[in-house]
Amino acid sequence: MKVAVLREEGSSALAALGEEVAALLAQRGDEIVSEPVEDLQLVLNLTTVERARVNYIRPNPSVFVASLVHSEAGTSWESLEQLKRATYTALVKTMSNVVVHRVEDGPLGGSVYFMTPELGFRRRDDDEQVARSIVDYVTPLC
């Protein structure tokens, strides 16, 4: 599978997570590229929830877009509903199939939240296996 990793400005933690996901995909035999090319199957879009935007227009619907978003330092989500709204907004703004939102600070921090239009919103602890969880979640869908 050909995978493009597109990076916006963001935190070093998000960049490290993106690199870890890309390394796991490469270990599976996937080809990692740094810019869009023909016959892509997966785009990993790394951005912040505050700056989420479309940075890849799919040439056809078979290209799967997964956005890894991060809340900027100091962002504290007070309620799960507030976090869901922000994550859903990022899903729409990036035109992604899935958004993986990493939250470090505040009462909802230390977690990663997955959101898709079809499967909704779910939480997972942010630990050393989070990159593996992202790969396991995304690859069967694309």
Structural commentary:
With 142 residues, the chain is α/β, with parallel strands linked by helices. It has a single domain (2-141), classed as Rossmann fold (3-Layer(aba) Sandwich). 28% of the residues lie in helices and 29% in strands. It contains three helices and seven strands. The protein has helices at residues 12-27, 80-94, 130-138; strands spanning 2-7, 31-33, 42-48, 64-70, 98-103, 111-116, 120-125. Strands 2-1-3-4-5-6-7 form a seven-stranded mixed β-sheet, sandwiched between helices. Strand 1 (2-7), helix 1 (12-27) and strand 2 (31-33) form a beta-alpha-beta unit. The longest helix is centred in the N-terminal third of the chain and has 16 residues, at 12-27. It starts with a strand and ends with a helix. The relative contact order is 0.18. The model has no long low-confidence stretch (mean pLDDT 89).
Write the layout of secondary structure elements.
Elements: E1 2-7, H1 12-27, E2 31-33, E3 42-48, E4 64-70, H2 80-94, E5 98-103, E6 111-116, E7 120-125, H3 130-138
Parallel strand pairs: 1-2, 1-3, 3-4, 4-5
Antiparallel strand pairs: 5-6, 6-7
Helix pairs in contact: 1-3
